[in-house]
Amino acid sequence: MIKTTKRITNYITSRTLQKIQEMVPLSVKIMGIVGVFICLLGLTVIIDMRSSMTEILNDQLRKRAVTIGNEVASESTNLILVGDLIGLYEKTKTVSLHNEDVRYVLILDEKGHLVAHNFGQGIPAGLLELRQLEIDSAEADVIEVDSEEGVILDVLVPLGKNTGWVRIGMSEANMNRTINTLSIKLMVTTLGIIILGLFGGFIMSHLLTRPIKRLVEASIAVAEGDLSQRVTIGGQDEIGQLGHSFNGMAENLERYTQEREALLAELMDKEQIRQQLLNKVISAQEEERKRIARELHDEAGQSLTSLIIGLRLLSQQNDLEQARGMAEDLRKVAYLTLEDVHRLAVELRPTVLDDMGLVAALERYVTEYRCQQDIMVVDLEVHNQVKERIPSEMETTLYRIVQEALTNVAKYAKARNVSIVLELRPEGVNLIIEDDGIGFNVEQVLSERTQGRQNLGLAGMQERSALFGGTFEIESEPGRGTTLYVRLPLEWGEKHERKNTSIVGR
Fold first, then answer.
1. Are the CB atoms for 65 and 143 separated by under 8 Å?
2. Domain residues of the chain, as ranges?
3. Alpha-carbon torsion, ordered 421, 425, 427, 433, to 10 deg
4. What are phi and psi of 469, to 5 degrees?
5. Is 445 in contact with 458 (CB distance < 8 Å)?
6. To which CATH superfamily is domain 351-506 assigned?
7. Cα–Cα distance, 450 to 470 (Å, whole number)
8. What is the Cα–Cα distance from 61 to 20, expressed in whole angstroms?
9. CA distances from 274 to 71, 259, 278, 394, 449 (A)
10. CATH number, domain 23-123+133-184
């Protein structure tokens, strides 16, 4: 039970000290540490100095007592031999008057009887019996005696030729007063040093905690979202390095946040463009279906109806010559119907792109485009360094980009000359489409696109290039034509083709 109570008490005490330590500001901790350190240092110095001074002064007092005893003994030997009691009495008085620490001087004969002393009205009781005389001793002997005024050093010095002894009593009162006075001065000095130390600790804590407070305030502001906070801390010490690290962290956070916001805005713009492209694709699909349905109904449907009616009339015809004429007419109607169906199939997807590849498909498309644009010179130049065909999806993408680009040239550029350069290399495909038309302001068109306006042709070409990890660049100025650069990495396209093939194979 006692052990449990002790543990609980220790736990509560440690928790209390921990809470106090957590609540006390850093400046108070620094001043407290400085004050406690100076107090301990001052207390140690006072104790050590007091001990050293006591030892030194006590030793000096002993030596002085022995010296006085030897002097009195040497001067009293002749006087006691001749029996000059008056001289001995005067000698004791002289010694006590000239030495403040001497409390008594006793001169004893060879039998230990008191011969002379410095007391006027008799010696104190028990003083003579305080110690025994040592007859065979030839040197001074010192003992400590407790009295009402403190410790007294009792010195016993033998006289020469066994004629007696001299006892000198030296008080330590003056020595103790001197030690106490010096101790008080040391305490006052220590107190002054403590005050100066606390003042220095206050200045030091202020110098140390001021930049730390700035760091704390800036950290709180950054945590609340203000990433423009910076701290100004001079010096190359640890706090200065911490300030530089904080500024670097804040700059990185601000840059990262700006980049993230820019990326988010770009993603939102791309998502908006993708949505518009998707809507355009869906609308284009519906329009294409309507057009195909209309053409099938208006052309193929009417032709097939004519064939049905003609075949019915042909079956009712008895004249062979008229039947042959009607059959020839029906053959022409069937041929035209077949041409219309073939034209629709080619418009949906050119079969030459699947059968003979990208180069042949582009050559046929450019030839048809020249026939449609009589006033425009269109030049196609192909540099093929690839032995095998590139992936079909990449062929379709490049074909649609050329198709979209030439459509835009016909609609907006008012160009007289168009140049198409296709480079097929092992590492990738480069496509350059250049015209000498009226051009346009690229930045303005791109900004209009980010604002949600309809520039879906350029966006579609860019999205097609991005799907294959490629790049799409535009160079144009008003009145100086337009150049499109498309670069698609062939290795990525091959991997993409292999991936799609594996998925289909599954």
1. no
2. 23-123+133-184, 351-506
3. 10
4. 70, 20
5. yes
6. Histidine kinase-like ATPase, C-terminal domain (3.30.565.10)
7. 21
8. 52
9. 121, 22, 6, 20, 12
10. 3.30.450.20
- CA 412/CA 258 separation, integer angstroms: 37
pLDDT of residue 489: 92
Residue 488 has pLDDT above 90, yes or no: yes
Supply the DSSP symbol for 418. E
Query: Which residues, in sequence order, are CB contacts of 227 under 8 Å at separation 6+?
Result: 250, 253, 254, 257
- Of 276, 225, 274, residue with least CA distance to 254: 225
The residue among 213, 195, 194, 238 whose CA lies nearest residue 27 is 213
CB 488 within 8 Å of CB 429? yes
Alpha carbons 320 and 81: distance in angstroms, whole number: 198
Q: Are strands 164-171 and 102-109 parallel, antiparallel or unpaired?
A: antiparallel
Half-sphere exposure of residue 271: CA atoms within 13 angstroms, side-chain side: 6
Residue 435's pLDDT is what?
93
| Fold match between domain 23-123+133-184 and domain 351-506 | no
**How many Å apart are CA 129 and CA 167, to the nearest integer?**
12
Could you read off the pLDDT of 133-159 as tens digits, one per residue? 776 666 788 888 888 778 888 888 888
Q: Could you give the C-alpha distances from 351 to 348, 367, 397, 453, 493, in angstroms and in order?
A: 9, 16, 15, 35, 22
CA angle, corner 308, sides to 307 and 310, nearest 5? 60
Distance CA 236, CA 245 (A): 12
Pair of tokens at residue 125: 């009781």
State pTM to two decimals.
0.42
Q: What is the mean pLDDT of residues 392-405?
A: 88
pLDDT at 380: 93
Length of the chain: 506
84: left (phi over 0), alpha (psi -120 to 50) or beta: beta
Higher pLDDT, 186 or 270: 186
Q: Beta-strand (E) ranges in 120-275?
A: 141-147, 150-158, 164-171
CA 426 to CA 386: how far, in whole Å?
Answer: 6
Query: What pLDDT digit, counting tens, does each position of 44-66 carry?
Result: 888 888 888 888 988 888 888 88
At residue 495 the predicted structure's pLDDT band, cuts being 50, 70 and 90, is very low
The pLDDT tens digits for 299-316 are 666 677 777 777 777 677
The answer to whether the CB of 45 falls within 8 A of the CB of 189 is no
